[in-house]
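Objective 1.3, modelling of assemblies. Example input:
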Amino acid sequence: MAATTVTPRSHRTSTWWRHVAALTRRNLVHVRREPAQLSDATVQPVLFTVLFVYIFGAAMVIPNGTYKQFAIAGLVVFNITTSTMGTAVGVSSDLKSGVIDRFRTLPMARSSILAGRTFSDLLASILCATIVLITGFVIGWRPDNGIPGVVAGLAIAVLFAYAMSWLMACVGLSVSDPESAQGIGLLVLFPIAFVSSAMVPTQGLPGWMQPIAEWNPVSAVAGALRELFGNPNPAALRDNFPSQNPVLMAILWSLAIMAVCIPIARARLKARTVD
Amino acid sequence: MSTTPVIRAEGLRKTYGEQLAVADVSLEVERGQILGVLGPNGAGKSTTVRMLTTMTRPDAGAAWVAGHDVIADPQSVRRVIGVTGQDATLDELLTGRQNLELVGTLSDMSRRDGRARAAVLLDEFELAFAADRMVKTYSGGMRRRLDLAASMMAHPPVLFLDEPTTGLDPTSRLRMWDVIRTLVADGTTVLLTTQYLDEADTLADTISVIDHGLVIADGTARELKASIGGEHLEVTLEQPDERAAEAFAPLASGVVQVMDGGRRLRAPVVPRQGLVTAVVRALDDAGFAVDDIEMHHPSLDDVFFALTGHAAEEPVGEASDDELVEV
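Predicted structure (tokens):
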């Protein structure tokens, strides 16, 4: 008879990572089989970057710079934020597919399912942000702070995307099917992505909307990237805490979102897989 | 090793909202045996399996698999079981091989062991030719076989098979039976649910008949058949005549049932040499012409009908298991 063995913690931790790696790999195989799954992170960034820069850029006046120089940081945040929709859809597809029942009967930690999903989406976010930057570079955007600034900005952006993935995991775990995940995900993401300084300076927004936009985490990340890239940041002219401390706010927001959403997502998964 | 059952359930009960899925199920399976859990759709078979395999928490009762408590220690249970559900639990976008290797990794096998085991199972289940194709392209029978292979990746000593042959064509079904027999020959303990009586009859060492969430009978196939009486003789007359029963009665070992307004007579008999001839002669002598005569050996169908008042393969009408399972 199989005796219950007490597994040392270090061994359990390495096992957990092995499971996460296997599940991450599985999600990446999915992407290879159905590349369209990744269009949020590959095609959309190119499209949005070109469209926004040439359409909005034609009308927008940015203090101390051009719209192109202003917009790329915002487009990075905008695109990685909306691409976290993939997490909601992915988690919800997993729950709906039969494979979740297989996982439930295996001696693995449930948390590795979510960790694997958010890790593969983290890779998608890195790809997405890189594509925006390359597209921007091709059409003439330049970072004034050189490579270190770009790398630091990317790190902040990806940290935020990872946090948003957990929020989207909560969405995916709270709806009944992938279609609803997509619908609800859009409802959550679009206001967050748009009511911000990502695409327009908040100075131009209606008065009541300005504080909302300024405290929006997307604005913090956009501001942080502009500072780090050395691009024009009109928010710096605003006299309020988040506008003046975008890097700090971006990190705090990301940590806060994770602190709230990771436990919720884990509890939701547990509720959805024990009946 | 003691002779405690490998699978033991006591008074399992589960309701989903208003719906009573399992009322009271107790069962035991000894090492290396196959228990057939037999019942119609919606009888509570799947819910019972889900409770025993830690996927569903019972509302009441207790169960142990290989000595591990399914409620208190589900992780230990998961280390010793393999489960094949009614619906294939495979990743459609992975290949057959990738599916098996993923299960291997998640069952804590080393990469090398996982690879080797996957190759062996793909061969054994005649899937080697499709090993590197996406499961999406597999037929129903291939999926079932891969699903069963996946449950066996980590050599589990206890296997739960929930309607493993439902929806399979006859050839695939026979092949699945062979696989299950081979497993048990290797000492694996199996709990198998089925709505097919012939399947339970062929494969199972013991059978639990379950209906409306209750175990209504259990024992070996032979015991169950014996419990509803042995052989019956059924006579069809050329002209219906209820009085023929009187001529048949002296040769029967019980009450003669008159059916079809006297066209058919049916009675329990003790089989012996020349019995059929004697019955035909007795009826003929009394002036009743016999059209057909048939010895009726009891099947599990008869058992099921006798126990439940409805046939096994007809759904009980209310929600089926599928509808009860919330995924």
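Chain A touches chain B at residues 1-2, 4, 15, 18-19, 22-23, 26, 29-30, 33-34, 95-108, 273-275 (CB under 8 Å).
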